[in-house]
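Bench log. Compound arrived from synthesis this morning; before running ITC I wanted a structural hypothesis for how flavin-adenine dinucleotide sits in the protein. Inputs:
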Amino acid sequence: MFETEVLVIGGGPVGLSLALELGLQGRRCLLVERHERVGFAPRAKTTNVRSRELMRRWDIAQRLAAASPFGVDYPSNVVFATRLAGRELARFANAFYCAPLRDERFAEHAQWIPQYKVEDVLRGRAAEFRGVALRFATELVDWTETAGGIDARLSDLCTGERLDVRAAYLVGADGARSTVREKLGIRMEGRSPLSQHHNIVFRSPGLAQRHALGPAVMYWLVNPEVPAVVAPLDTGDLWTFGCPKLTIADANPEAMIRAALGLDVDVAILSRDDWTAHQLVAERYRAGRVFLVGDACHLHPPFGGYGMNMGIGDAVDLGWKLAATLQGWGGPVLLDSYEIERRPIHRRVVDEAVINLGYTSHKLVLEGVEDVTPAGEAARSAAAAQILDTKRREFDSLGVVIGAAYGASPVLGDEADVPQIQEATAYAPSARAGARAPHAWLSDGTARGASLFDHFATNAMTLMATRGLVPDAAAAVRATAADAGIPLAIIAPRNERLAQLYEASLVLVRPDQHIAWRGDDPSEACAMLLRAAGHGVSRPHLTTHRPPSDGPSPKEEIE
Ligand SMILES: Cc1cc2nc3c(=O)[nH]c(=O)nc-3n(C[C@H](O)[C@H](O)[C@H](O)COP(=O)(O)OP(=O)(O)OC[C@H]3O[C@@H](n4cnc5c(N)ncnc54)[C@H](O)[C@@H]3O)c2cc1C
């Protein structure tokens, strides 16, 4: 019997992030993954601003930058053209905010990097923590929940050996076809399938030099014959090609790619796979000591690059809460708040991704768009106008990426009870309870670039005094924390803008950099510290319990 604190099922980016977060918090976990997860699967290429902020918190943002196949300076343009060798229609510069510029709004730029490289970096960092054990080629078979924890049965897929594990908690980070979700009988709610797609990874020596559109992270090819998206993936002339599944069904894929590019180039196909677009969220994320994170509880189209990134956010939210509970300072409602906080974020992002799905390449094609005639010119102008109008929110979505604030939650100040949803393309810093803390660069000369976020504690609550420290206030909050055993850091960064940015003299920041409370009254800060740690007075309207639904089950062909 192997004993651990958290058993994580699934070694994708979300399971790895959870293991890493638990390791950072000093907890023990065992992560098991059925496959070796080597080789390139054509999944995430966008690691967004928020994920890289969290990676900075894990001390791996620089490592990820170093793993970048084309360097972080590579221009993150998204170009729309009829073909790679065709006519340009429109372009977006600095898509996803990948440019390595110092921006007041965030601590880290985004990055264009294949998912398998992100996973390498996450895996390497997770393995550095003594409490974290990673085991590949190992599968969860079954488990039972006892009064004290989870008794799980695993199978070593190389030897066929059975492995018994006892853990306090079990987390299903096991993807779209989640075994954990299935065994719990938790249904996915929503619509599926929305559409079917096909992805190809191919090698084409010298392709980057064979066209005149300049460097970009994606080329959207808007033509009636083979509408598609082609994107540089990795060094060694590796590219990805994505199109509707129907387009490729009976075709010679090499010829299809050449036609889409409008270039007679060498194409060697390395891998192909189908994927389905869904609009699904799990009806529950928790059953007793078992939780769901990542694709196991939300599935949506990849346009906008949200799936992995949102799952990394799940891992941090659940990770610090599990750790606080295991350390004994997390109160009874802390773990309940995971689903309460994350579900509205998931719904928002799923809907946003479905909006983006409405404007894929083949839907942007206008009649005559390739014609060399005045009518063709007019069609291209109309296509360009439509692209600029509809696609910006896909590549410029800080309002979703860092503007997402948690709503009513048993561990947040009452301010969070009033929903706050930002426009996708218009992020406005907000310091209300539930929001990701507004970012600021400080001029205190710290080695890591003086981000305010570097001053927040990663495994404790942070009380930030924005107008300088009042010793009596600090002493009162420190005494409350000590009595309740809540780890607390108190900071008073020297920056005149903070009081204005946070609109309060005292701010309680959680280990995940979200604001639990802000105000001016130290006695309120003491009460809110207890609430933020999950010891608040019960608020019955904030519960994860929902009556069982008799509604029709959505078609669950999850690929
Ligand atoms: C074409 C495409 C492009 C995408 N682009 C982006 C993007 O740019 N940005 C972005 O953020 N997201 C993107 N995504 C989404 C992203 O790939 C997923 O959201 C992400 O992989 C989900 O990670 P996960 O760890 O939750 O699940 P997965 O990556 O699916 O990992 C789950 C793991 O669990 C393992 N497992 C399952 N059952 C068991 C069991 N019983 N025992 C042991 N192991 C088990 C599986 O083998 C699997 O390895 C894209 C997806 C697609 C299809």
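What the model suggests: The two ends are 34 Å apart (CA to CA). The first strand starts at residue 2 and ends at 3.
ITC booked for Thursday regardless.
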